[in-house]
Design brief:
Layout (H helix, E strand, L loop, with lengths): L61 H17 L22 E7 L1 H14 L3 E2 H9 L5 E7 L6 E4 L6 E2 L2 H6 L11 E7 L10 E4 L5 E3 L6 H12 L5 H6 L1 E4 L2 H11 L1 E7 L12 H11 L1 H4 E4 L1 E5 L9 H16 L5 H10 L4 E4 L2 E4 L15 H12 L3 E2 H9 L7 H24 L3 E2 L4 E3 L21 H17 L53 H4 L8 H4 L3 H4 L1
Antiparallel strand pairs: 1-3, 2-14, 3-12, 4-5, 4-11, 6-10, 7-8, 7-9, 13-14, 15-17, 16-17
Length: 560
């Protein structure tokens, strides 16, 4: 018997698998080609025609509809409520802004000083809208100014620097218990007393802070309730405060209340000569404060500055409403702050100008280069590159003009800084004069498209008629000959420009604007050439000829 076959097994021949072919029937040899499947169109289902002939309709069963609604309502009422057991919250009522006041939001003086320092140091042009967003990013960067109108209330402002401001004397005195300066005037002491006698089964408790008030049948319940309200919850409505009082019937709460009332709090004034005075309750403390310390703490004013970071607990509800409304609105629309931002920067001698349709601030107002000004070669190269590449980067300008590309290694960076230093110094001088503008992203711009034309005096036609007009015009024709001043057609003497002194670079631009602020930048290395050395200088003096008739009009008065 063969060793490959064991007993009880049936031998099989593997050669039979050679004719076995995998794949679909149409892919085999001799198989039938697949027939394309033909799809028959389904017959359309005939829909009944809409009733247009005014046939009868099914009568409307109103009772059935009402019954279905009642069934659904009963099912909903049987479901457990999602907030079962929770008391319904009354809608929150925000205090109304106080009437009779004018309120403005202004940038704080501290942030204006920072802006002025950075502008003088960095020489950058900054849009006022971005500065307004920076101011509104933090509450301590702006102030609210409350000004009394003709029929408005006076304001009670704290002198102790905590920013508290009130509209009534009652609010100012009630703030005494929460003020940080309370310990400067009064000292609090605990004195043991007898516990109240009586049968008490429950004690009232404030659910807001967990304070124990006392049993409802205790003779001091109302006084304790109002004392707690004035001390901690005076900003709430009294009815809302009373709605938060709950009753606790546990023995632990009753024992804690008995221990609490067995110790009485008294206050002693800290002023000289009042060592023996003991104030038994809050009303006595408030009366003593009104008499001795009210004038030292508060002042009555008609205009007050309140910082935006002042807590609302230190403001009258009407003033706090103004603070919330105006600050939120200005944060959403920061352009509302631009007028007051302009006034604040002007107080710090920072120029404001309008460029590209927006308000900007920078080291100087933008202006065109006068036609009679001759700049040094390096400055002129900076101006020409800025004209052709307005909006380019400062590094690209320095690399293009100096011929030293920006490097990444330390040695190359130092070489680039040394090569760029003269161009940066001249660029800063041009920025201080307003000829070019560099923004915060180091983009350099040419603000004016062309050089400013030479100013000329345009003579307005005389409104006189008759003999007076002829007499006024007659001296003007002979004036150049009488005074010896060259007419516009005659060249000016060559010796006149030589007598003028040379101008320094800072004196070269002739402008009516105030001189730019002195910065940390170095002065340009090359001085500007005097204006008289320009090729067209004799022609530039031609507009001064009309000034001569002023002297020639003198003999015309006797004739008149």
């Amino acid at each position: 018997m063969d060793e490959n076959h064991q007993e009880g097994t049936t031998p099989f021949n593997l050669s039979e698998l050679t004719a076995f072919q995998f794949g679909p029937a149409w892919a085999r040899k001799g198989g039938e080609t697949p027939k394309p499947q033909v799809y028959e169109e389904m017959p359309r289902r005939e829909r009944p025609a809409r009733r247009r002939d005014g046939g009868e309709r099914r009568p409307f069963d109103r009772e059935r509809r009402d019954g279905d609604r009642a069934t659904k309502r009963e099912g909903r009422e049987g479901r457990p409520q999602r907030r079962e057991g929770r008391p319904e919250r009354a809608p929150r009522q925000l205090p109304a802004p106080a009437a009779g006041l004018r309120v403005e939001l202004r940038p704080a003086n501290s942030i204006l000083e920072i802006f002025a320092t950075q502008i003088h140091r960095q020489k950058r042009a900054l849009p006022l809208l971005d500065l307004a967003r920076v101011v509104m990013a933090a509450k301590d960067r702006y102030d609210l100014v409350f000004m009394k109108l003709e029929d408005g209330p006076m304001m009670i402002h704290s002198k102790l620097g905590d920013g508290a401001c009130w509209l009534t004397e009652q609010e100012a005195v009630a703030y005494l218990w929460k003020a940080e300066w309370f310990g400067k005037f009064y000292k609090r002491e605990e004195v043991e007393t007898e516990a109240p006698a009586g049968s008490f089964s429950s004690v009232a408790k404030c659910s807001l802070g967990g304070e124990l008030i006392g049993p409802a049948n205790w003779h001091g319940y109302q006084a304790s309730l109002m004392r707690l309200y004035r001390r901690k919850y005076a900003s709430m409505d009294l009815s809302s405060f009373k709605a938060r009082i709950v009753t606790n019937k546990s023995e632990e709460a009753l024992a804690d209340w008995l221990k609490q009332v067995s110790h009485t709090t008294v206050w002693k004034p800290l002023r000289e000569g009042a060592e023996e005075v003991v104030l038994q309750d809050a009303a006595a403390v408030e009366a003593d404060f009104r008499e001795h310390h009210y004038g030292d703490v508060y002042e009555v004013v008609d205009k007050v500055f309140v910082n935006g970071a002042t807590p609302k607990s230190r403001l009258s509800p009407g003033l706090a409403a103004h603070l919330s409304i105006l600050s939120d609105k200005t944060a959403r629309f920061p352009q509302m702050l631009i007028p007051n931002l302009c006034h604040g920067l002007a107080r710090h001698h920072i120029p404001i100008y309008k460029w590209q349709g927006h308000h900007y601030t920078g080291p100087s107002r933008v202006r065109a280069i006068p036609a009679d000004m001759v700049l040094a070669d390096r400055m002129m190269a900076i101006v020409n590159w800025t004209k052709e590449n307005s909006g380019g980067k400062v590094d690209a300008m320095c690399a293009a003009l100096s011929g030293v590309p920006a490097a990444e290694d330390e040695a190359g960076k130092q070489a680039s800084v040394d090569a760029y230093a003269p161009y940066v110094a001249d660029m800063i001088w041009l920025m201080e004069q307003g000829f070019i503008v560099v923004t915060a992203d180091n983009s350099i711009w040419y603000p004016k498209g062309s050089a400013a034309p030479q100013p000329t005096k345009v003579e307005t036609p005389s409104r006189r008629s008759g003999k007076r007009a002829k007499k006024a015009q007659a001296p003007k024709a002979d004036a150049p000959k009488a005074t010896g001043t060259p007419t516009p057609s005659e060249p000016a003497p060559a010796e006149a420009p030589a007598a003028e002194p040379e101008l320094a670079p800072a004196e070269a631009p002739a402008s009516d604007e105030a001189p730019a602020a002195e910065g940390d930048a170095a002065e340009p290395s090359e001085a500007c050439a005097p204006a008289a050395e320009a090729p067209g200088a004799p022609e530039a003096e031609a507009p001064e000829a009309p000034a001569a008739p002023a002297d020639a009009e003198a003999p015309a008065d006797p004739q008149a």
